[in-house]
Amino acid sequence: MGNEIRYDGKVVVVTGAGGGLGRAYALYFAERGASVVVNDLGGSFKGEGNDTRAADVVVEEIKKKGGKAVANYDSVEYGEKIIETAVKAFGSVHILINNAGILRDISFKNMKDADWDLITKVHIEGSYKCAKAAWPIFRKQKYGRIINTASAAGLFGSFGQTNYSAAKLAMVGFTETLAKEGAKYNIVSNVIAPIAASRMTETVMPPELLAALKPDFVVPLVGYLVSDANKTENGAIFEVGGGHVAKLRWERSSGALLKCDDSLTASAVLARWAEATDFKNPQYPEGPNDFLGLLEQAKNLPRNAQGPEVSFKDKVVLV
Ligand code: NAI
Q1: How far is the CA of 150 from the centre of ligand 1 (A)?
Q2: What dihedral angle (degrees, nearest 10) is formed by the CA atoms of 190, 195, 196, 199?
Q3: Which atom of ligand 1 is nearest to the CA of 149?
Q4: Is any atom of ligand 1 closer than 6 Å to the C-beta of 196?
Q5: Which family is it part of (predicted)?
Q6: CA-CA 20 to 30 A from 138: which of 102, 183, 235, 275?
Q7: Of 248, 263, 294, which residue is a domain's last?
């Protein structure tokens, strides 16, 4: 274990650190020299109730092993109070792990506004509030590391989780923009879609799978990404769990370029559909399309050929 990465002198805030993945992160950083703020509201996995014991137990566990930790019991919606705890106890914050989360699984048909609002509040607003409060400190000290937590549900969709999926994919856009804005201040942000056994997943996964998916198997990637050993990844998306670490990126088909005149109809798009959706020669973009280049290429295109008729007869359209 001689090459173990350490975090001496670093202050780490882990939200939702009273259990599951958050607890594993908190123990990891504390064991490797960091001062840790163990934040947890201590509610149910559906976001009901609160209990200070969730955070207290983890703080005790860290202290017993000789580590440095303080508890914070605020909801991540009040991120400024969590960051204030870090500054009061340890003088700063260097690493923020936005991990707290809840579920309100229900089919879209039966979803209530309250199910939607609570999920977006905890995941999106919570991550925003914590990052927003840490940001001026990160900028001033020219050092900051953020991990945001997405989910396979956000990347691929998941039955009964429209609220959670929407909130989790928001973490990707949030991270990618933080990465761009933070780069010149040495603020590095990445996003993970973890999979791990926790109270969140114990009712939906079989026992043999749960045994293979310990939170401890997610932690090392996060430990690496926020360490000074990471010189390459900023704004990146990772899937991680059960010993598997994989990076995700966008893929764009090479696409079809159509003439922009009155021949650019739905039927003309249909005529070029195979080309528009052909991934044989893909691009792996890190930004929007180069429209100036496309405009140049499009200058001498002929009028578009028309495909089969596209009709909206008898349809009512709301725009
Ligand atoms: P967990 O339920 O074991 O832990 C989440 C912790 O967050 C709990 O201790 C809870 O009290 C705390 N929390 C909830 N709302 C809070 C709030 N408003 N303020 C402060 N703390 C709050 O769940 P788990 O599995 O450890 O999840 C951690 C993160 O990973 C979540 O963001 C979750 O959505 C995400 N995730 C987990 C997956 C898994 O396979 N376990 C899969 C994909 C994403």
Answers
A1: 11
A2: 100
A3: 32
A4: yes
A5: Belongs to the short-chain dehydrogenases/reductases (SDR) family.
A6: 102
A7: 248
